[in-house]
Design a protein that fits this description.
The complex is a heterodimer of chains A (114) and B (196).
Chain A (H helix, E strand, L loop, with lengths): L4 H50 L7 H52 L1
Helix pairs in contact in A: 1-2
Chain B lengths: L1 H25 L10 H23 L8 H25 L9 H11 L22 H21 L1 E2 L4 E2 L3 H28 L1
Antiparallel strand pairs in B: 1-2
Classes of the chains: A mainly alpha (114), B mainly alpha (196).
Chain lengths: 114, 196
């Protein structure tokens, strides 16, 4: 293939997009699953507090429900931090895929020159 | 003449190899702390320990074996485990927290669908300041904070039994919440491993 700016640029863009797209799938799945869990837990806490009010042998007291909600806030933060880290990994791999195209291109040029 | 030519070729090969190695070194970036097998295994062990313990507490609710007073030592053991992992994560983190640029965060939430994201997890807290390598450290700090929260719930005196403990429903919800945080840290570590 002819070596010119357009070719190298095209390869770089493709490599970056492929790599980011592949890793983004993992980020997206993680976010969807975990956001659903957060919603389910909040509903579960409300349900258990309501059950306790009807029958103190079931569910748990509102004080416990509040403490569990505080705990859930921490897990929500963990999900957000996890998303951040996974996104960074996707970005890191996309950048490195682009840089690999450059490295391979320069290696090819060096082989030709030497 | 032949020797000179071979020398020239060997020299060229060495220069070429050195340049490629230099390029390989320069042409990679690292935005996240590297995979750490100790943290990976430690999270797995911690998940097993906390699940076994909390599940047992739920089953022993209303009995002396299920009270906080009878089990306070386990919190020290579990706390020591998390503290060790935290110390390990600090080796790679710069202690500046887990931050990415606003542009990257916005892109992340645009792709997810901003309207579908709960208000509590929207990226307003994210700024261009800070350091991205602190994500694993923050994830483990959260585990430590949740363990303290669980300890407080365990210390709560149940009005029905007039003793401390974790009701079966409490232990079920608490485990679901804690496993979510542990898994967030674990998934990140596994993702790092896949890229190594």
């Amino acid at each position: 293939m002819e070596l010119n700016v357009e070719n190298v640029l095209g390869q770089m863009l493709q490599a970056g997009a492929d790599e980011f797209g592949e890793n983004w799938g993992q980020v997206s799945t993680f976010a969807t699953v975990e956001f659903k869990k957060i919603a389910e837990t909040v509903v579960d806490i409300a349900k258990n507090v309501a059950e306790y009010k009807l029958d103190p042998e079931k569910g748990y007291p509102v004080e416990v429900g509040k403490m569990l909600l505080e705990m859930q806030k921490k897990s929500t933060e963990a999900v957000l931090v996890g998303l951040t880290a996974l996104t960074l990994l996707a970005v890191e791999r996309a950048i490195n895929a682009v840089l690999k195209v450059l490295k391979d291109t320069f290696s090819g040029i060096l082989d030709t020159l030497l | 003449m032949l020797i000179s030519s071979n020398r020239h070729r060997i020299g060229a090969l060495l220069i070429s190899t050195a340049l490629v190695m230099m390029l390989a070194g320069c042409f990679t970036v690292r935005l996240v702390s590297p995979y750490d097998q100790v943290i990976d295994n430690g999270l797995k062990e911690y998940r097993q320990s906390i699940n076994t313990f909390v599940d047992r507490m739920g089953k022993n609710f209303g009995k002396p074996d299920g009270t906080y007073e009878h089990n306070s030592g386990t919190y020290s053991e579990l706390g020591a485990h998390v503290t060790t992992l935290l110390a390990r994560s600090k080796i790679n983190g710069a202690g500046l927290g887990c931050r990415i640029t606003r542009k990257v965060t916005d892109e992340m939430f645009n792709r997810l669908g901003r309207d579908k994201v709960p208000a509590s997890v929207r990226p307003e807290a994210h700024t261009d300041a800070g350091d991205s390598s602190g994500c694993t450290q923050r994830l483990i700090e959260i585990l430590n904070e949740q363990l303290s929260q669980l300890e407080k719930i365990h210390q709560f005196k149940d009005p029905q039994k007039n003793m401390t403990g974790l009701r079966p429903a409490t232990s079920k919800t608490a485990l679901s919440i804690m496993n979510q945080a542990i898994d967030a840290a674990w998934i990140v570590e596994k993702a790092k491993r896949e890229g190594e």
